[in-house]
Amino acid sequence: MQIDLRHRLIEAMFEAIYTKGYHASNLNAILKDVGTSKGGMYHYFSSKKELTLCAIDEVLNRAIEELWEKPLLEEENEHTLRALTHCINDYATLAEDESAQIKVEFGCPLNNMIQELSVIDEDFASALQLVHGKWHEIIVHTLQKAKDRGECRSDFDIYDVALFVMSAIEGSISSAKVFQDISYYKQSTKVLNQYILAL
Length: 199
Hints:
Elements: H1 2-20, H2 27-34, H3 38-42, H4 48-74, H5 80-95, H6 109-117, H7 122-148, H8 158-179, H9 183-197
């Protein structure tokens, strides 16, 4: 029961920041939604900041693992680069799922938090850098695997290309967010996927 309360606090904090932003997220309202008091929260977290850091660490890292690490590094794929494009396409499917946590209207939670939180607090910046770094490392390993298997050229820098791919994905999500239309993501990532498969 107590473990469940901790989980619900983290999920509620994440949802509030994702949909409203950190500064607009009212801690009292979050506690009311969860059905606990500040005393209940203080049993696990000393402050709104600590709760947010746990949300970054646990929720965002879990999303990176589910959306990128498992399908690219843990599952066996016949064609590594095509598996990467499938992961990119899966975001559109996820964003269109009404039951999913990620929504087109709110954009990418990692990017949103980077934009708002990384400039106001060093601890937030460090936590977000770790998540970003984990995602980058997964793409780097995927590209290296493709090279090792002879699926692509060998004359490109996997670190630079991985960062470019991530930046293109984030830009595509932002375009879909500003126009509130997932087709903008699909159009731009179609070109990105063509680039990846031509490596």
